[in-house]
Write a structure and sequence with these properties.
heterodimer; A: mainly alpha; 6 helices; about 0% strand; B: mainly alpha; cell membrane (chain A); membrane (chain A); YeeE/YedE family protein (chain A); transmembrane (chain A)
């Protein structure tokens, strides 16, 4: 293991903002800031308004900051369409079957000491690390 | 009132994702590359988020609140059942996450970069939600 590209301060600052956003939605609105659950619920749940509003806010901020050149978007040009489609499909199926993603399990679940979220988080982290490690071995 | 709160929370969440580096797939893949060239940054994203979220939540509960400010009951923590769906789901999600370095929040945020690749990822993810719901209703 070699440590590279470590950006502790921006990571921590961003994390604090994400935690504050999730706390606000839960304590004021009574809703879990789990992105996969919020998006999937737009199609399947009756209560859509707050979900659409949350997604609109989440998309609007990067849209504006990229548009004004305040921030630079990471380029996705090097991905093959097949890789993106397969990854997106697995992320979609997996987060629905497992009832949560990095935010729902990793923050809201862990923060509320949900045993299911502890198991899910350890498992998806391990699976992600195994995938990156094994695909790296192939060159 | 829920709609403006959700809009503001979503905006704050999006800003956090951008500032933290979660919207840069190379950084996410660097974090998952524990046994290679490891970028530990994302551990601090999760740590920072939990450092705000967990004490805030438990402080509210210790005040004796069972409801949120707007009046709804706080969602229950689900019972500790580790069924096959949870384990298989987390496994598939982790593999997909490792293939591209993009999870659902950053996928939405990357739509703001107006790259068609972000749209493709989100469309595939939504197809995945739909497939998983279908599979779930077949079993029942």
């Amino acid at each position: 293991m070699t440590i590279v590209n470590f950006t502790p301060w921006t990571a921590l600052a961003g994390g604090l903002l994400i935690g504050a956003a999730a706390l606000l939605l839960l304590l004021v609105g009574g809703r879990i800031a789990g992105i996969s659950g919020i998006v999937a619920g737009i199609g399947s749940q009756r209560n859509k308004g707050w979900r659409l509003a949350f997604v609109a806010g989440l998309v609007a901020v990067p849209l504006v900051l990229f548009g004004l050149n305040v921030a630079e978007a990471a380029s996705l040009q090097h991905y093959s369409p097949w890789r993106l489609a397969l990854a997106g499909l697995l992320v979609g199926v997996g987060t629905r079957l497992g009832n949560g993603c990095t935010s729902g399990h990793g923050i809201c679940g862990l923060g509320r000491l949900s045993p299911r979220s502890v198991v899910a988080t350890l498992l998806f982290m391990a699976a992600g690390m195994a995938t990156v490690t094994l695909s790296g071995l192939g060159g | 009132m829920l709609i403006p709160i959700a809009l503001f929370s979503g905006a704050l969440f999006g800003l956090g994702l951008l500032v933290s580096g979660m919207m840069n797939p190379a950084k996410v893949l660097g974090f998952l590359d524990l046994f290679g060239r490891w970028d530990p940054s994302l551990a601090l994203v999760m740590g920072g988020a939990l450092a705000v979220f967990a004490p805030g939540y438990w402080w509210w509960r210790r005040q004796g609140h069972t409801r949120c400010v707007l009046g709804d009951k706080l969602p229950d923590v689900p019972a500790a059942r580790f069924d096959r769906k949870l384990l298989l789901g987390a496994l598939l999600f982790g593999i997909g996450w490792g293939l591209a370095g993009i999870c659902p929040g950053p996928a939405l945020g990357l739509l703001g970069s107006l790259q068609w690749q972000a749209g493709l990822f989100v469309a595939a993810m939504i197809a995945g939600f739909w497939l998983a719901n279908k599979a779930g209703s077949l079993k029942r």
